[in-house]
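Q: Sequence in, structure out?
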Amino acid sequence: MDNNQFIFNKFVTGKNFFGRVSETKIFRNLIEQGENVAIFEPPKAGKTSFIMNTFYNMSISGVNFTPVICSLLPVRSSAELALRFGSAVLAAFGKTHGEHTANVERYLSGTHFVFDPEAFVSGGDILSTNWDIDNNDLEAVFKLPYKLAKDKSSKAIIVFEEFQNVNFTEDPDSICGLLHNIFDTLEEDFRGCCAYVFTGSEVNAMKDIFTQRKLFYRRVSALHLEPLETRDIIDHSVKCFLSSGKVLDRELMLGICHLFKDNIYYINHFCFICDSLSKGYVMEPTLKEALESLIAIHEPRFISTMNSLTNFQMNLLRAIVDGHNKFSSSDVISRYGLNSSANVRRLKDALCKKEIITFDDNDNPQFLDPLFEYWTRKTYFKIPE
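A: Exactly. Output:
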C-alpha cells in the first residue's frame, strides 16, 4: 500500500475509491447510452474521483471510449471556450502534427479554425483561429466529438469541468442554447456516439443554469452525489490507520465524520495530519491539534469570505448559524436587523451568489462548506456548545 493512505490532494480510483455504488451504476448507464449528465457539488465533494473511477471501471471492463477533459476554469470568452474545447477533443483523438492537420482540415473545414504548427510547438495549442469566431464555428466545434467518435468507432465522453464559468463569456445563454439545439436535433447516425458531462463546484450557479433557467431542459440529467456512508468512511479510515501502525477508536472517528458532515476531502486531510502527529493510539489531544492545524490552513480563505459580506449579509448568516429558517418573520427581521422581507430575499440571493449557502427544496439553508460552517460558529461568532 502507499505510504499515504489518506489521499486528499488528487482524485482516487480503484482500491482507493469506495462508496457511491448506486450513483456509479446510474452514471455509467447514462453515459454508455450517450445521455448527457450534470453533476454540481461543492468543491472537493469527490466529483472528479467519481467520474475518473467510473472511467477506470469502464476501461477494465473493455468498454471502447475516448474521454475528453476540458476545464472552463480560465475561460472568459466564447473564443477561449471554443479553442480549449476543440484542442482537448483533437488531443484525445490524435497525437501527431499530421493527425491534427488532417483532422482540422476534414472536420473543421469552412470554419475560422486552423492548425498552426508553430503555435503547437511553442505552446501546445492544437487549434488557432484566422478570424473572429461565430456561431457556425461554435456549432462545428461542439459537433466535432460526435464526428470523430463515429469515424474512429469509439464513444466520446466529454467532461466540462467548472462549467458554470460559461457565465463569464459574452453570451452564455447563446452558447448553452447552441449546445441544447445540437442535442435536440442530433442526426440519427450520431446518437450514442458522444455524451457530455457538465460538472461544477459553484452549486448555485449550476442550479441556475440547469434547474432555474432550464437551459438544457430534458437534454441533460442532473445527478446528485449523496454524502458517503458514515460507516464506510469509518471502516476506510480505521483500516488506513492500522496499515501505518496506528489505532483510532471508532467512536472518535464517528465524531470526526459528524464534524465534517462526511466530507471525505476534509476527513482525509484531517486524518493525514493526525497520522503525522501520532504514534500508536491516536488520542483526543492529537485530534484537537489536527483540527487547529486544518483550520489554520483554511482560515485565510474563511476570513476573506467574511470580510466580503455587508453588515446585512452578516446578520442573515448569523441567523442561519443560530438555526433559523423563517427569515421573513417579523421576529427574525427585528432580532437580526434584516430591515424587511424584500431585503431578506436580496440577502439570500447574495449569500447564494457568493456560494456560501444553498437552499434545499423546502427552502432550508445549508452551508456548502462544513469546515467553514464550524469555523463561523466556533471562531467567528463564538457560539458556545
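The chain has a mean pLDDT of 95.
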